Amino acid sequence: MLWQNYIKGFKLYLKLEKSLSENSIEAYLRDVKNLQIWCETSYPNLSPLNIELNHLQAFLAAIHKIGLSATSQARMISGIKAFYKYLLIEGELTVNPTELLESPKLGRKLPDVLSPAEIDKLLGQIDLSSPEGTRNRAMIETLYGCGLRVSELINLKISNLYFKERFIKVVGKGDKERLAPIGGSAIKYINIYLENIRIHHKINREFTDIVFLNRRGNKLTRVMIFIIIKNLAEKAGIKKQISPHTFRHSFATHLIEGGADLRAVQEMLGHESITTTEIYTHLDKKYLRETILQFHPRSRH
């Protein structure tokens, strides 16, 4: 009972005031519950309101000792800091014990990017003679052509397709909506799927407006998208570590390398902060060299 009421209130705060998605809320709650479990073992009578910096530092030392990665530690600290920010807002605390809590230093590890040739090679492994193959081609064209998150793909609605205007409406993190441009290739394969494959499914009433469905007429899961992409990468002989997010990363990188404005890419990806978008600008050395030779006034001669 020392923790439950505060965690319940935190959950409502994240949902109603921060408008976070269910996945994000669960991640934050998991971080706080990890701290709760540790406290109940190490300090059974310690309330979250009585925790001090030394307790939190001991907790970090414990999770570091069990081999949790720096990224996971940083993620957990972020969740715990959000929890204590909530307690401050609610007036439960006047001093924030996480204020001086430092996260581990993180290297800026960038995910792999597929070249346009590798994307074509992966797409070439799809069997378009099968219903699933036609659907998979449409999904990957949409992931890469619109820069979607996997959650945005599996929740994409038919009523949010505006092909005449060449836009789709996407519901992103925190249920925030944005309009994403969609290219001719993605439109082509989505239409083929809708008109020739999906129309023959017996669709669960709950998912009648969802674009991409499985054979039983239900919405696809995130895991299923990961498996489809992993299998195609193996068939194509691509050794890079790829996931659905690889196509989003490739989308942004190829736009930047093609000369797109960073602000425009930020808008298309649905990032609140431009600093988030900047991780997609890891342009290769050849491109950087060509850019400085072309545009810097002291390099033109």
Helix content: 40-55%
- Which CATH class of the largest domain is shown? Mainly Alpha
From the N-terminal CA to the C-terminal CA, the straight-line distance is 73 Å
Secondary structural class: mainly alpha
CATH fold field value of the largest domain: hpI Integrase, Chain A
* CATH architecture assignment of the largest domain: Orthogonal Bundle
Number of helical runs?
13
- Strand tally is 3
Question: Would you kindly provide a brief summary of this structure?
Answer:
This protein is mainly alpha-helical and 301 residues long. The chain has helices at residues 4-17, 22-42, 53-65, 70-89, 116-123, 131-146, 150-154, 184-196, 222-236, 244-257, 262-269, 274-277, 285-295; strands at 161-162, 167-171, 177-181.
Describe the SSE topology.
Elements: H1 4-17, H2 22-42, H3 53-65, H4 70-89, H5 116-123, H6 131-146, H7 150-154, E1 161-162, E2 167-171, E3 177-181, H8 184-196, H9 222-236, H10 244-257, H11 262-269, H12 274-277, H13 285-295
Antiparallel strand pairs: 1-2, 2-3
